[in-house]
């Protein structure tokens, strides 16, 4: 952690504070089995897993946290689209299964399958070295380790970033993008976040070619149709002027089908959205209220579902449990965050 790039910001006044207190900054790892941090902010990973590094200003009794994932492989992921799923393997390859009528599995054909199949660039070349993935209604996106973006599937609304309107059952690089750090797909749009904190978007309601959203804020996370600024505030991609909710100190965001989750730097989870039919907000109100769960290190919002992992490696869920979607027994839905006992604790 470089002290020289730490910014002290008064969130109420939207201005940067004096840097005179930086020399007093202290660090603390909340799980020293996973990682340790010295007095200079150097983090050393010890075992694979997740933890938080607390950054403390003892003079003003202020603190924040950053989230750390320690791994010696590419972090595996799962992303669920509309009747199809994609998974990122630790070897950097993508597998998919489910509906494939528009090439959303990227395997070179348009045949539905319940057997995992890999994404290809062409008939003989697999898409490799991928570190991030996303799924929309009927398209997929992948980010390579060298910062390039690849898309496949439906292109009805230009969500592949190509002027050709036809769907595509092979992955292809999106032109004009580089130094990308994160990608996502949401319904019929695709988004990308670059190393300068700029957000690019294309698809329904936008161009069929990536366009950079205009804002003077540096963004650090994107999910669905929302993004997170460096100051810890959440903005809609359709309005980068005013925060979409009155939350501060947010470290991660996750967009579901019609609801959202936000994880604060203190480990609290907040939810809001237009739909709470299945209890996916984990509370009775659709508005921002107190946290629905604390001591959390990771979150995920899905189709009518919400999930969170605590610092104790416990999984909590709420929302639709049709066909056992959230792993609970003998209930059709959960309207509050409920611990999944069969996965206690989650193995790293």
Please characterize this protein's 3D structure.
- The protein is mostly beta strands and 348 residues long.
- The chain has strands at 9-10, 15-16, 26-29, 35-37, 43-45, 49-57, 62-70, 77-80, 84-88, 94-98, 113-118, 120-122, 125-126, 130-135, 139-144, 149-153, 168-173, 180-186, 189-194, 199-203, 211-212, 219-223, 226-229, 234-236, 250-255, 259-264, 269-273, 296-301, 305-310, 315-320, 333-339.
- A four-stranded antiparallel β-sheet has the order 8-9-10-11, with no helix packed on it.
- A hairpin with a 7-residue loop joins strand 20 and strand 21 (211-212).
- The protein is globular, with a radius of gyration of 20 Å.
- The chain starts with 8 loop residues before the first strand and ends in a 9-residue tail after the last strand.
- The model is unreliable at 344-348 (pLDDT under 50).
Task: Provide the descriptors you would attach to this structure in a database record.
single chain, 348 residues, mainly beta, four-stranded antiparallel β-sheet, 31 strands, 0% helix
Rounded Rg: 20 Å
Assign a percent range to the helix content: under 10%
Strand order of the largest sheet: 8-9-10-11
Q: Give the number of DSSP strands.
A: 31
Low-confidence spans: 344-348
């Amino acid at each position: 952690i470089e002290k020289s790039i730490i910014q002290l910001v008064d969130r109420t006044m939207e201005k940067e504070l004096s840097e005179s207190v930086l020399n007093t900054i202290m660090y603390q790892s909340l799980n020293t089995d996973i990682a340790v941090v010295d007095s200079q902010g150097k983090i050393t990973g010890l075992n694979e897993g997740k933890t938080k590094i607390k950054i403390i200003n003892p003079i003003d009794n202020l603190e924040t946290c950053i989230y750390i994932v320690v791994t010696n492989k590419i972090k595996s992921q799962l992303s669920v689209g509309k009747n199809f799923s994609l998974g990122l393997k630790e070897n950097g390859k993508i597998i998919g299964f489910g509906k494939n009528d528009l090439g959303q599995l990227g395997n070179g054909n348009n045949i539905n399958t319940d057997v995992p199949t890999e994404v290809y660039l062409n008939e003989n070349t697999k898409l490799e070295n991928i570190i991030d993935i996303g799924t929309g209604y009927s398209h997929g996106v992948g980010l390579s380790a060298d910062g390039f973006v690849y898309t496949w599937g439906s292109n009805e609304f230009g969500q592949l970033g190509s002027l050709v309107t036809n769907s595509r059952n092979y992955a292809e690089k999106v032109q004009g993008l580089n130094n990308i750090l994160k990608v996502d797909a949401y319904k019929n749009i695709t988004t990308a976040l670059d190393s300068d904190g700029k957000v690019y978007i294309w698809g329904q309601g936008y161009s069929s070619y990536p366009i950079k959203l205009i804002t003077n804020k540096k963004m650090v996370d994107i999910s669905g149709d929302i993004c997170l600024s460096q100051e810890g505030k959440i903005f809609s991609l359709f309005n980068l002027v005013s925060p979409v909710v009155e939350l501060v100190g947010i470290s991660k965001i996750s967009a579901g089908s019609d609801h959202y989750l936000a994880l604060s730097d203190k480990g609290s989870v907040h939810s809001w959205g237009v739909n709470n039919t299945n209890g996916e907000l984990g509370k009775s109100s659709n508005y921002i209220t107190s946290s629905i769960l604390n001591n959390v290190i990771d979150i995920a919002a899905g189709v009518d579902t919400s999930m969170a992992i605590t610092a104790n490696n416990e999984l909590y869920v709420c929302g639709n449990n049709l066909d056992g979607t959230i792993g609970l027994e003998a209930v059709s839905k959960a309207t509050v965050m409920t611990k999944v006992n069969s996965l206690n604790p989650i193995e790293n």
